[in-house]
Amino acid sequence: MKNACLGLCAVALLAVGVIAAEEKKDEKAVAKCPVSGKDINEEAFVEYKDAKVYFCCPGCPGAFKDNTAKYAAKANHQLVFTEQAEQKKCPLTGGKLNEDTTIDVAGVDVNFCCNNCKGKAKAKEGDEQVEFLFNDKAFEKGFEVSKDDEE
Questions:
Q1: Which of 1, 109, 114, 136 has the smallest number of CB atoms closer than 10 Å to its CB?
Q2: d(CA 86, CA 146)
């Protein structure tokens, strides 16, 4: 009886951990302003690469336009995060994707052609990882802005 009770407690703790992890993942699932890093306001945006980049406030679009190169990687990441762009190839080589190489990069699943590329990406963290995988060169190799069906 004691072992059964311990087993049930272990299962309950595991379930609470899984639920907490899912809630934590959902909390992160908010697009961020590429200038400030704050949550976006969908009313503040600019057209970028035939899509929209969103900002936290009306002041950030001006900063973005003044130095787009500085914010390009975060803007490109946001395009994928908001599903306006999707991954088509490896962002490092332009090679065919291997779904066994998926990693999470600031809320976006990114695949690679091989474990070597995956390892290079995993060696970086935070903003450095976003810059490495979503800079304009990597974005051009691996991602494509979704075409509007109305065209």
A1: 1
A2: 7
